[in-house]
Write a structure and sequence with these properties.
heterotrimer; C: mainly alpha; 3 helices
């Protein structure tokens, strides 16, 4: 049973990484691409980390997994925020790549 | 002082988790390391945030649910052929919150569906938000308000001043405008 | 079971890695490159985590801590640099 859950978590997590990669290719501008690179990827890492914890129930492992997960939640949005701010402050004068886009 | 002890406590917990075992040597070296960190970076020991465990749990649940929905939404937007995306930049106002909670809000907005925080501004406190799917300013503001209410319940105002405004007005707690330029 | 699942996951992550490398090569602006590098790093962290599930090797967890911290540091530093230089 635990093996089944672990397998589902790991494969779903990997699929989310693929979604992020496809998104970075298909979305029209840098800021939109950052949506794809931030959210599914964070959830993907969280899922695989849950898989690690399920696979190895030792307290020391779970504590370290929790630490890595917390680190992801703190750093992923902050990194995206830093890059987003840099792009935003740079493009507010000539914001042609923020126009509505039809099709991807 | 108790805030200091609390910070030493969780820093030591992180240290022990990193070493992967509770031994006297680990705990002792962790305490020393935490003490050194607090001496070198006194900012970490400032003003404790009170946490309401119940609303804190609700906030974590809301956050995880938002992350799952956000990932599903982005996945759909990425895979759907010829989707019509309307990326725009909006501004949503924030209530008066201490800096740590404003950063938490900015982080949470980035991990919830359709929105990505670009910039945190002060006077008046607000967020510049990049919206992927053409959500209106009203709906984004509503989401931010909901999140702000949750954050305020999870971290109720502490201290005799009894108001988050007091933390805002305290000059030491103001960030240095990102220290740019 | 776990063998098979992690093999499937490794395959999917590898495809994602190839796409990420493609995005890095295609990127024309500095911001695009950071987004692509950030993506590659996330994929790397995820692959290491899949490895941890497969082998139960605890060393991988320490590598995860260091990799995520270094990646965050890198992204932040380049973003600061972009703001200072004023070109995305």
């Amino acid at each position: 049973m635990i093996d089944v859950l672990t397998s589902i978590a790991v494969i779903t997590g990997a699929a989310l990484a693929l979604v992020a990669a496809i998104g970075v290719h298909r979305l029209p501008d840098v800021l939109s691409r950052m949506h794809a690179a931030t959210k599914p990827a964070t959830l993907g890492i969280l899922l695989v980390l849950i898989g690690v914890a399920l696979r190895d129930g030792r307290l020391a492992v779970i504590a370290k997994v929790a630490l890595v997960a917390a680190l992801q939640f703190l750093t992923a949005p902050t990194g995206a925020h830093m890059v987003g701010r840099a792009v935003h402050r740079d493009t507010t004068e000539h914001d042609d790549d923020l126009d509505p886009v039809d099709g991807v | 002082m108790s805030a200091r002890l609390l910070t030493v406590g969780w820093l030591t917990a992180v240290w022990v988790a990193l070493w992967g075992g509770i031994t006297p040597a680990n705990v002792l070296s962790g305490l020393v390391a935490a003490g050194l960190v607090l001496t070198a970076f006194p900012i970490a020991s400032r003003r404790p945030l009170r946490i309401n465990p119940l609303w804190g749990a609700v906030l974590v649940g809301w956050f995880l649910a938002g992350l799952v929905r956000a990932s599903a939404t982005v996945a759909w937007q990425v895979i759907r052929p010829r989707s019509r995306l309307r990326p725009t930049v909006l501004t949503a106002t924030l209530p008066a919150l201490p800096p740590a909670l404003r950063v938490l809000m900015a982080d949470a907005v980035s991990l919830t569906p359709g929105t990505l925080t670009l910039d945190l501004i002060e006077d008046p406190p607000a967020l510049h938000i990049h919206v992927l799917d053409g959500a209106t300013a009203d709906s984004v503001q509503r989401d931010v308000d909901t999140l702000a209410r949750l954050v305020q319940r999870a971290f109720p105002p502490s201290g005799a001043s009894g108001d988050h405004r007091a933390a805002m007005a305290d000059p030491r707690t103001r960030p240095d405008e990102g220290g740019r330029r | 079971m776990i063998e098979l699942a992690t093999t499937v996951a490794f395959t999917i992550v590898s495809i994602a890695g190839v796409l990420g490398a493609g995005a890095l090569l295609r990127a024309r602006t500095l911001a695009d490159r950071i987004v692509a590098l950030d993506l590659l790093l996330v994929i790397l962290v995820l692959a290491i985590a899949v490895g941890a599930v497969r082998t139960r090797e605890r060393l991988y967890l320490d590598i995860l801590v260091v990799t995520s911290l270094l990646g965050f540091l890198g992204t932040t530093i380049v973003a600061r640099f972009m703001e200072r230089r004023g070109s995305a």
